[in-house]
Design a protein that fits this description.
Elements (H helix, E strand, L loop, with lengths): L9 H21 L4 H7 L3 H9 L4 H10 L2 H7 L4 H18 L16
InterPro entries: DUF3969
Organism: Paenibacillus lutimineralis
Protein name: DUF3969 family protein
């Protein structure tokens, strides 16, 4: 099986990453994913850099930079991790709600109906 997600519009990319981030944060909170998995999948400095290079909302760039630091919070102040993850979830939801809906929604998966 080969799954491809094709996004070209900046707003759609930001929406997709916010939705993906909500799932990642919830998975970390519930222990369904490890921080090593999260790093492999999404929480790499490259993601924030790529968003910045493509002129994404500065708040989403900052959010992904901070999500990369959740592992440090786990290691340094584990008693604050749950609150930090909950805060990042709230920030992600706020960002998702703030992203303009001027662009017509599009299919995220190629050839979904074929």
């Amino acid at each position: 099986m080969n799954l491809q997600i094709a996004l070209e519009n900046s707003e759609e990319i930001q929406k997709f990453l916010c939705i993906l981030n909500l799932g990642m944060l919830e998975s970390l909170l519930e222990g369904a994913l490890s921080f090593e998995d999260a790093y492999t999948y999404l929480y790499r400095p490259y993601v924030a850099q790529l968003l910045e290079e493509n002129e994404a909302n500065k708040e989403i760039v900052k959010l992904f930079e901070e999500c990369c630091m959740l592992e440090d919070i786990r290691d340094i102040a584990p008693d604050k991790l749950k609150n930090a993850i909950e805060l990042k979830k709230k920030e992600t939801l706020d960002l998702l709600q703030s992203i303009s809906n001027t662009v017509k929604p599009m299919y995220w998966l190629n050839r979904i109906d074929e």
